[in-house]
Specification:
mainly alpha
Length: 203
């Protein structure tokens, strides 16, 4: 039915529902941390692959395609894994492994001989674990949100996630000019790993 509440009240309601729930706060916190540091990562990722690792367009295309395969596998496994260990544990597992496997990218600088397989493995594993987390995170957000507020909570989540992305991208570019692409990627991946912290503080 058509709502007679003002837009301002609907926005406030969305924020209040999220802030009052430890579960929703943790889910949104992990997602915003991932989005923020993920954009810092993406701002210099292609430059890193081409400039510092010396990879050509074909190799970079193959790497990005591998991420799509990993995402498909993560989506396929999201249900079975959740039924096995629970949705909450699957979210934590996906977020933690997403951060850990991403550290293979800066590791490629230290062992350039294995740079290409390390980056391919990271792309495949990161996307797999990210989608594993996202599917179960969305399910949990729906389960812990009162039905009338579902759209408002989704809007609040998207505002927080998408709103931080341009700031993260600017930070990534600024950091790369000061400390270089490899160290910027290390900082970004460390941030994405630390994004699991809000999840670990929930029941």
């Amino acid at each position: 039915p058509e709502s007679h509440e003002s837009v301002r009240l609907q926005i406030r309601t969305g924020f209040q529902v999220v802030l009052r729930s430890r579960i929703l706060r943790a889910l949104v916190g992990a997602s915003t941390g991932t989005a923020f540091f993920g954009e810092a990562f993406m701002a210099v990722y292609i430059f890193f692959l081409a400039g510092e690792l010396g990879l050509g367009s074909t190799a970079i295309g193959a790497i990005l395609a591998t991420g799509g395969i990993g995402a498909l596998l993560g989506a396929a496994l999201s249900g079975p894994v959740s039924r096995r260990i629970g949705a909450g544990n699957t979210v934590v597992l996906g977020q933690a492994m997403f951060g850990l496997t991403g550290l293979l990218v800066p590791l490629a600088v230290l062992v350039p001989k294995y740079a290409l397989p390390l980056v391919i493995a990271s792309e495949f594993l990161q996307w797999g674990f990210l989608i594993l987390r996202q599917v179960n995170s969305a399910s949990m957000r729906q389960a812990f949100t009162p039905l009338p507020a579902l759209g408002r909570v989704q809007a609040t989540s998207m505002l927080a996630i998408q709103g931080l992305k341009p700031i993260g991208a600017l930070l990534g570019g600024a950091l790369a000019t000061v400390i270089g692409a490899a160290w910027t990627l290390t900082v970004a991946e460390s941030g994405m790993l630390l994004a699991v912290t809000p999840l670990l503080l929930t029941p």
